[in-house]
Amino acid sequence: MKNFGYNQAVRVGDRIECSGQGGWNPETGEFYQDLDEQIDQAFKNVDINLRDAGGQGWSQVYKISSFHVPLDMEAAGAMIRNFAKWMPNHKPIWTAIGVAGLGGTTEMKVEIEVIAHDEQGAKAAKGGQ
Question: What's domain 9-125's superfamily in CATH?
């Protein structure tokens, strides 16, 4: 992922907070044009960044905030489909918000921000203490 002068995810103790992830290709930075593809890729980007911060991915997520242009049934359906794919064994809390724009571009249709709990990773980060 490109570095824009901030971290995509940070660990604070046993929490990992992931900044808003959109449906961009991590290799090229280009946005997928199809809404389903953007949402699918945003979920992949969240997973990449949680793991880069030492977590285990979506299985540790307990809070999701998503921002949509627009927030409609197509967007909600794609989100719910990805919840079932990435988190088949638990159901975090979710807030979905419709917004006028994202990321300063008309191409960006979704942004997903999460908080995860990673007790084991926090112990490992402290050197096993």
Answer: RutC-like (3.30.1330.40)
- Which residues does residue 106 pair with via DSSP β-bridges, in sequence order? none
The full set of domain ranges for the chain reads 9-125
Burial 72-106 (b: 16+ CB within 10 A, else e): eeebeebbeebbeebbeeeebebeeeeeeebeeee
Encoded amino acid at 6, one letter: Y
Query: What are the mean pLDDT values of the chain's consecutive 10-residue runs (129 residues total)?
Result: 73 94 93 96 97 95 98 98 97 98 95 95 59
Backbone angles phi, psi at 125, to 5 degrees: -65, -25
